[in-house]
Design brief:
Length: 292
């Protein structure tokens, strides 16, 4: 009987009334994982000092079931809609505020969900189709896979991996390993320093600001867009910039000039300092370059 009570206390699986207001919490470990599934609406996640996961707010007015459970270090929060649900103007998504222990990892899956995640030290993984994502004070690893919606990152540490099809990315981070890929996206990354950056854009502009650490590597490739590395401090790297026919190279960092081929492509190679790091930039039909 005692064992049964413990199980019941560690699990909530509720058949919810559509649009129901909820205020639930579970005791959990200081580390582990919180997995969140929400089809539409807005989700706010905030880390706190308590070893408790708390969910407050209002469920989607088409909610069929709300799952809130914890087992083997994993907390599951899931808003279940009917397999065929309405997307009319009268339909309203979930609006939830979720508090989690500071050091847990957060894994969030959505379809049309706006996200705000703050103070999570165990890493964040996001997979969503549409909706804006705002992240602040995240450590360890940040992974975002989004089809559409703007992404705004502030004070992100650890490793960053972002992929988006039609959303702009703005990142002011202290991460040293950064990878961003975008289609029809403008990307701006500002970091104090970094040792590995890869930015790939198609039909969008990319701007990287910061200082390359010793033995570091920067790769920036684009198709039909502008890519610029705004160098903070002094470079110690081998530089290679290349374009396809019709592409342009702009070098405002040094006096080195690009050379042109008979088909209209451009190449610029030079070394700064001892050449311990590498900076490689390529465009098919856009503009690439260095600026101070």
């Amino acid at each position: 009987m005692k064992k049964l009570l413990i199980i019941l206390c560690s699990m909530w699986v509720l058949s919810s009334i559509a649009g129901e207001k909820i205020d639930k919490q579970l005791d959990v470990s200081a580390t582990g994982e919180v997995e969140i599934h929400n089809t539409r609406g807005k989700i706010e996640v905030q880390g706190w000092e308590k070893n408790v996961v708390s969910v407050k707010g209002e469920l989607d007015n088409m909610t069929e079931k709300f799952v809130f459970s914890h087992k083997d270090g994993k907390t599951l929060i899931k808003v279940v809609l009917p397999k065929s649900y309405s997307t009319s103007k009268r339909s309203k998504g979930s609006k939830l505020k979720i508090f989690v222990p500071l050091r847990v990892a957060v894994n969030l899956n959505g379809v049309s969900t706006d996200l705000e995640i703050v103070n999570v030290q165990g890493g964040v993984e996001i997979n969503t189709v549409s909706g804006n994502a705002e992240l602040k004070n995240i450590a360890k690893r940040t992974y975002i896979n989004s089809v559409s919606g703007d992404i705004d990152l502030k004070n992100i540490k650890g490793r960053i991996e972002i992929s988006t099809v039609s959303g702009n990315v703005k990142a002011s981070v202290s991460a040293t390993k950064i990878a961003v890929a975008g289609v029809s996206s403008d990307i701006t990354v500002k970091a104090t320093s970094f040792d590995s950056v890869k930015i790939v854009t198609v039909s969008g502009d990319a701007h990287l600001h910061g200082s390359l650490l010793a033995d570091g590597d920067v790769k920036m490739n684009n198709v039909s867009g502008d890519s610029f590395f705004y160098v903070a401090g002094e470079l110690d790297a081998r530089i290679t910039l290349e374009t396809g026919p019709g592409g342009d190279i702009v070098n405002k960092y040094s006096s080195d000039k690009p050379t042109s081929s008979f088909i209209g492509s451009e190449t610029l190679k030079f070394t700064v300092g001892e050449g311990n790091g590498t900076v490689r930039m390529h465009t098919v039909s856009g503009t690439i370059g260095l600026r101070k």
